[in-house]
Amino acid sequence: MKDVKAILEQFKASPYEEAVVCAPHCGVVSFKTTAGETRVLGPSGTWREKPGTLLATVTRERNAKPIHCQRKGQVREVHSHLDGRFVEAGTPLLVLRHFLTKEEVTQAILKQVLHLFEAPERAKYYFAPDVDKKVKVSGCRSIRVKDGMDLFIVSRMKREKPLNYSGPEGIIYDVYFSHDQNVDAGAPLISVCPEDQMGVIQDVVNRVQSDWEEQE
Questions:
Q1: 141 lies in some domain
Q2: Euclidean distance between CA atoms 204 and 72, whole angstroms
Q3: 3-state DSSP helix/strand/coil % of the chain, to nearest 5
Q4: Are residues 108 and 203 in the same domain?
Q5: pLDDT digits over 13-25, tens only?
Q6: Which of the chain's ends, N or C, has fewer CB atoms near its CB within 10 Å?
Q7: Domain limits for position 200
Q8: What is the pTM of this model?
Q9: Considering 51, 79, 100, which residue would you say is the last residue of a domain?
């Protein structure tokens, strides 16, 4: 297992992620924000029905389509020389900096240090009936897995087939899928932690929750 404490220190040294916002389609750009200390917000509401901060519009065939911010953060760079000009789809427009939350840091560390069992194809996934019953009663961390274990049911095109777990023996630490949603190929289904490392992982999680300072 990787040095989880060293990984945490790396996040503390660089506590943010930067994302490039590109034009979703061709058209004339009109920026609605500036770079610097400008704070922007992501979607809000119970179902994220309220759009985030308006960053720009791209007008195509007299139809101005908005580009809203998807995560809370800061506008670091605006390609203002493109304002009022026609751009192709995929043209970089802005750079946003998102400061990581406690939960985001925790999940990022766990995905680096634990074994991730990934979806082999785009489909809906379910735990096998015996496993599902135990998860519902006692939680996912009551499940010990080993290579070749009958663990999942894959549902695709109204057909179902079993999927065995492959990987190191351990405890299911977290589950990343829900029964009613498709999972893309390569996306993690579960993370698995060696049983003798559960205490170490929990110590790091507790440390993040107590020490990490979230930025407004």
A1: yes
A2: 25
A3: 25, 40, 35
A4: yes
A5: 889 999 999 999 9
A6: C
A7: 103-208
A8: 0.73
A9: 100
